[in-house]
Design a protein that fits this description.
This protein is α/β, with parallel strands linked by helices. The chain contains 11 helices and 14 strands. The chain is elongated and about 75 Å long.
Length: 315
């Protein structure tokens, strides 16, 4: 669907992109993350043909952004960070205007208007001037304008920027709904939005891709910049707390044990290990005792911690 090949971009002597490459399959919702100046907005503007790369190319639905710019624009819906809305236009007129810009066939106009008004929740404001709408509704109007021509790919730059918590939830749900039919690429600085919305996250820093995986895998694999890990277990044993801690500390690579709860001989523990994957060793040890194990899970970091780990010192 989208194949990015060795994109570079210079602004004078400053290199904003340093030969990045990635692929996005149909139906994915992918988050593009990075600190300010990392190159994420530059990447989106190149993919939408607003900027030309210094070198490299991107193939979108089999079309090169270098050789088939007009055809690429027809299959992309783009919502920039500051959506170009016209406050004196009513919502209906704006959507018709956007349909004309995208050269939507007149025979399809009513069908598309009906669809975008419904999916974006604009029925109540369809006749109102855009200038009278809340920030959340304005963002919905921008999204509706971006998909009026039924693009296969939707590219959103900071779509929840400036919204209140309730509006953020509404736009998040709308993006997930649109993602059922389209490939969606989202640039955002709100990391919880990526965890809640995206099937994949690409982290860019200083013009390079430094991570590309599912949010869950990123949390598991990059939560610590060392190779340590944290394990939570629940066991039943007659041993006292100090005995449990002493025995576990004798297991290879375990350097700290915390007792979270102790009731009716059921103990909830947090184990800290210098091993990247200590669960097998812990399980073998417990199996050699008379303890009963109820649960053992690895604690994963949230995406915010991962982001900080990968980009700290470089912002």
């Amino acid at each position: 669907m989208i194949s990015v090949k060795n994109l570079t971009k210079y602004y004078g002597d400053f290199q904003a992109l340093k030969g990045i490459s990635f692929e996005i399959k149909s139906g994915e919702i992918v988050g593009i993350l990075g600190p300010n100046g990392a190159g994420k907005s530059t990447t989106l503007r190149i993919l939408t043909c607003y900027f030309n790369p210094t070198s490299g190319d991107a193939i979108i639905e089999g079309k090169s952004i270098l050789d088939e710019e007009n055809n690429v624009k027809k299959i992309i819906g783009y919502l920039p960070e500051s959506a170009p809305l016209y406050n004196d236009m009513c919502v209906f007129d704006y959507l018709v205007y956007m349909a004309d810009i995208q050269e939507l066939e007149r025979s399809k106009l009513n069908e598309r208007l009906h669809y975008v008004v419904n999916v974006c929740g604009l029925k109540e404001v369809i006749s109102k001037p855009i200038g009278e709408l809340s920030k959340g509704y304005k963002q919905r109007v921008g999204l509706a304008g971006a998909i009026i021509h039924d693009p296969k790919i939707l590219i959103l730059d900071e779509p929840t920027n400036g919204l209140d918590p309730n509006q953020i939830v509404e736009i998040r749900e709308l993006i997930k709904e649109l993602g059922k039919e389209k490939t969606v690429l989202v640039s955002t600085h709100i990391l919880s939005e990526v965890e809640a919305t995206c099937s994949r996250a690409i982290i860019i820093n200083k013009g390079n891709i430094i991570a590309d995986d599912t949010p869950e895998n990123l949390s598991l694999n990059f939560g610590n910049n060392d190779k340590s890990s944290t394990i939570k277990i629940s066991i039943k044993t007659n041993d006292n707390i100090e005995s449990v801690k002493e025995k576990l500390l004798n297991v290879s690579d375990i350097y700290k044990v915390e007792i979270e709860d102790n009731f009716n001989n059921i103990k909830e523990l947090t184990i800290y290990s210098n091993s990247e994957e200590p669960r097998d060793e812990i399980y073998r040890f417990i199996k050699s005792t008379d303890w009963i194990i109820y649960e053992m899970t690895r604690v994963k970091e949230n995406l915010e911690t991962v982001f900080h780990t990968l980009t700290k010192g470089d912002e």
